[in-house]
Write a structure and sequence with these properties.
Largest sheet: 8 strands, mixed
Strand content: 15-25%
Number of domains: 1
CATH topology: Rossmann fold
Order of helices and strands: HEEHEHHEEEHEHEHEHEHH
Length: 282
């Protein structure tokens, strides 16, 4: 942590966000800045990796290092960066299409490895950047440009999936409650391991069926005495699709992949060059 007192302006780039007016992503990026301030993360040691989609623009609006990758590859790219340089503060940002569609196959492996990165998944149940197609989290009752009469595929349950994959920190929030998001971001940053913040971030342009008003009616904070170490209870909560429970749903303090590799290195020793390794087994 730097001795310099960083402020919100130190994390904002000169580019102004260009999301649609009223987009839920505005309600996520501002508390993100505030969480960076609260944790005094040095911008020069911070990297934001994104994929394709409206949320893929996140790095442009942050005065940190940024990497705008290809569709579905934000999480493995961020994991590779952290493994290569554990001293960096690494964030991956993506939407439901990017992270649960083409990129869904990467999640279980980064989760089981427990790579120490924070993944922000902004879910609006629609492909917004490509003008309104159904996404992996679109509900059955929803109509879209690719489902004009009704969606016919069962939507994915990101919370249940991440619990099954073994992510060590899982929180869920709503961009209509930015103060709560700031607290979730801050806790995710402080957690050592793969932390995920699921955010429902309504699309005001293409998703007219799931709005800030409808979300406000179903959002419920987790009880104050909620046991975040109880994975089975968290899974039961994830299956309650009538309510959108928010807060830290699950947290497991276990070694990261970096810690486990360090333990092995300490036990068996480190080879200084490739020839030394070959000679050992020759």
């Amino acid at each position: 942590m730097s001795e310099t007192a960083f402020k919100v302006k130190d994390y904002k780039s000169d580019l102004k966000p260009i999301w649609c007016a009223g987009c839920g992503d505005y309600g996520a990026i501002n508390p993100f800045y505030q969480a960076l301030v609260e944790n005094q993360l040095d911008p020069k040691d911070t990297v934001i990796v994104s994929g394709i989609g409206c949320s893929g623009r996140f790095p442009y609006f942050c005065d940190t290092y940024g990497f705008h990758g290809v569709h579905g590859r934000a999480v493995p790219t961020a994991a590779g960066m952290k493994i290569a340089n554990p001293e960096l503060n690494i964030f991956a940002v993506g939407g439901d299409g990017d992270g649960l569609g083409i990129g869904g196959g990467h999640l279980p492996h980064v989760a089981r490895k427990n790579v120490d990165i924070t993944y922000i998944l902004l879910d609006n149940s629609i492909y917004g950047l490509t003008k309104g197609q159904s996404s992996p989290t679109s509900p059955l009752t929803m109509t879209s440009k690719t489902a004009p009469y009704a969606y016919v595929e069962e939507p994915l349950n990101p919370l249940a999936m991440l619990l099954a994959y073994g992510a060590s920190f899982i929180a869920r929030g709503f961009s209509g409650k930015p103060k709560d998001l700031k607290a979730l971001f801050s806790q995710a940053i402080q957690h050592k391991g793969f932390s995920v913040v699921l955010i429902f971030s309504p699309c005001v342009t293409f998703n007219k069926q799931i709005t800030f008003k409808t979300m406000n009616e179903i959002v419920k904070p987790s009880p104050e005495d909620w046991d975040r170490s109880n994975r089975l209870a968290a899974m039961e909560k994830s299956l309650d699709t009538d309510s959108y429970w928010t807060g830290v749903v699950y947290q497991d303090e276990r070694p990261t992949i970096h810690q486990r590799v360090a333990e092995i290195t300490e036990r068996v020793g480190r080879y200084n060059n490739f020839k030394e390794l070959i000679d050992k087994f020759a």
